[in-house]
Write a structure and sequence with these properties.
Helices cover 38% and strands 16% of the residues. It is an alpha+beta fold. Strand 13 and strand 14 form a beta hairpin. Helix 7 packs antiparallel against helix 8, helix 12 runs antiparallel to helix 13 and helix 13 crosses helix 14. The chain is extended. It starts with a strand and ends in a 36-residue tail after the last strand.
Length: 593
């Protein structure tokens, strides 16, 4: 038989506690944070100090499971009767295991059903961290699961129910949803599928960790993303991209020079200090180069932000970027080729960045030896001449560390892009309802590849997509493709049959090299004349002695012919002319009169 009891544990004796002895037992008396007086027996800890013995507020059940192992399970009940009820259920399961009605694995899984859902999420987050998943993915997954169990009222694993999740997703699919008195836009099919994927992955982990027997979300329906797309991105035209880069480069300084209030509001006559002006020009150049790199490489925003100076290989004949597997979306790692003009811009940017840092440090003095000196920020200064340790200004070449970020990509880049689009006069949303955001620059990359005539398989490799359908149907904007030019490249199809046949014959003759010879008609005209007589064709005939004898045309009346069976309109009339249509397809029938 099992039992229930309250566990005891020790805590340090409060500093204000009073120690006294009662019936040979030492006790401690103190007041808690609420001013209530507390009394507890004392014991001596392993370090020799006095500690108070505290009894747990809830009961613990102690029993022998179906495998014969003594177990202690926290019931979470403060009432002894309720705790004994939990103990009875545990003992019932142990008997079922002994009888073979359920397995020991099923019995252990049942223990997790009463565990708080938050504890399962904490364990799952630790699992994702151990796997090396990126922080952004990990945070999004846990956030979405927390939202699900909060809004669906899930408190335990036993509460996981497919019907409950389906009702939640149907409610969220509406254009507008009211949550806790606040109206919010509904979720697109893609967002709902992301929640579904997180649920399925979490349930699979629970199965692998012996927390669930089956995945309750395996048959959870997948929403049709094509039929319910809330965000349609569009690719930018070449003219729009050129205008955007120009505005992005000039806007930081232009806004600083613009007077915002007063009678001269809008005039670009504000005074800016030279050092601030240089800083703003450098900021605008960086933004424009960020946009250009995204468009000409197809990098995602997070991938671009992860690039360092050491990952940019510009000294090779074919410059390229090295994208580490930990920073790529598919976790494979790759090299991305660079256009020559982009490689030149990046080389100038890195050199100017190094020169800027060097100029900012020239006022400082450092100790250096004949080899090199490490500055305060960890960069390396290459000394041009040997010398004793002294304090001299830094005037030698400055080399950026390989770990230096290539760009300082702002977190709110999409808002900066919106302001640049507005300043450039480019509509964020076009007449089709498609919008431009940071990821739309990757769509522009895919569309420009297709527009340039790049083979679909090559474009797929450049986009780093696993499916050609994704490259061609999602990341290619058909409006920017030269569909009209493609249609004009098709062959002409005239309505006149004679013109068409003559064109075909000329093409065949031109291909076979016999275009100098006239082409015979496809079939002779053998229609009988109104007087029911027909004229035979004359052809040379050979006599029995081998001499060629010319024959004269013989006129025969159709009505005088003994055989009046119907013949094909293209049949030969004379037996001597068998095979005159040989060589044409299909071969016409032949007969004699």
């Amino acid at each position: 038989m099992g039992t229930v009891y309250r566990k005891s544990f020790t805590k340090p004796l409060p500093p204000t506690a009073e120690v006294f002895t009662r019936v040979g037992q030492r006790f401690g008396r103190w007041k808690d944070a609420k001013g209530k007086q507390r009394t507890a027996p004392l014991t001596t800890g392993t370090d020799g100090t006095d500690r108070i013995v505290v009894e747990a507020r809830t009961f613990t059940a102690k029993y022998r499971d179906g495998s014969g192992v003594v177990r202690e399970v926290a019931t979470g009940c403060r009432d002894e009767t309720a705790a004994r009820s939990v103990l009875g259920e545990l003992e019932r399961r142990a008997e079922l295991v002994k009888a073979g009605v359920m397995t020991a694995a099923e019995d252990s899984i049942a223990d997790f059903h009463s565990t708080a859902f938050e504890k399962h999420l904490a364990a799952y987050e630790s699992h994702l961290t151990a796997r090396g998943t990126c922080p952004e993915y990990r945070n999004n997954t846990i956030r979405q699961l927390r939202r699900l169990y909060s809004e669906c009222g899930i408190t335990r694993l036993a509460d996981l129910d497919t019907a409950m999740i389906e009702r939640w997703m149907i409610e969220r699919s509406k254009p507008s949803v009211t949550v806790k008195g606040t109206s919010k836009p509904g979720m697109s099919a893609r967002t709902r599928n992301a929640y579904r994927a997180d649920l399925v992955t979490f349930a699979n982990w629970c199965i692998a960790d012996k927390r669930l027997l089956v995945n309750p979300f395996e048959r959870l329906s997948v929403a049709d993303e094509r039929a319910d797309r809330r965000r349609h991105r569009r690719a930018m035209t070449e003219a729009e991209l050129v205008t955007l880069l120009d505005i992005a480069r000039r806007r930081p300084l232009l806004e600083a020079l613009t007077i915002r209030r007063g009678k001269n509001k809008g005039a670009t006559t504000a005074k800016v200090r030279p050092e601030v002006q240089a800083q703003l020009e450098r900021l605008g150049r960086e933004r424009a180069l960020i946009y250009k790199t995204l468009v000409l490489t197809g990098l995602r925003k997070g991938e671009l932000a992860s690039l360092t100076v050491g990952q940019v290989q510009l000294d090779d004949a074919l410059p390229y970027l090295v994208l580490h597997a930990a920073d790529e979306k598919n976790r494979q790692g790759t090299t991305i080729p660079l256009r020559s003009d982009l490689a030149t811009d990046l080389r100038m940017w890195i050199n100017d960045k190094a020169a800027t840092l060097q100029a900012a440090s020239q006022a400082a003095t450092v100790r250096f030896d004949s080899e090199s000196v490490s500055s305060a920020d960890g960069a390396t200064l290459e000394a041009g001449a040997a010398g004793k340790r002294s304090r001299l200004p830094m005037t030698m070449a400055y080399r950026l560390p390989a770990s230096t970020s290539l760009f300082e990509v702002p977190d709110k880049l999409v808002k900066i892009l919106d302001r640049d689009l507005k300043a450039a006069g480019i509509a964020k949303r076009d007449d089709r309802g498609q919008t431009i955001d940071v990821h739309a620059l990757r769509h522009s990359f895919g569309t420009l590849l297709s527009k340039a005539g790049v083979a679909p398989r090559t474009a797929q490799a450049a986009m780093r997509h696993s499916s050609i359908n994704l490259t061609m149907n999602v990341y290619t904007d058909p409006r920017l493709l030269d569909v009209s030019g493609a249609v004009e490249s098709l062959p002409s199809l005239p309505l006149s049959a004679e013109h068409g046949q003559s064109e075909i014959l000329r093409n065949v003759a031109r291909a076979t090299g016999t275009d100098d010879y006239p082409s015979p008609p496809l079939a002779p005209t053998l229609a009988p004349t109104p007087d029911k007589s027909c004229k035979s064709w004359s052809s040379p005939d050979k006599s029995t002695n081998g001499e060629t004898v010319a024959t004269k045309p013989v006129r025969r009346d159709v009505t005088s012919c003994e055989d009046k069976r119907k013949r094909s309109a293209t049949s030969a009339v004379d037996e001597r002319h068998k095979g005159w249509l040989t060589g044409f397809e299909p071969v016409t029938s032949r007969t004699t009169i």
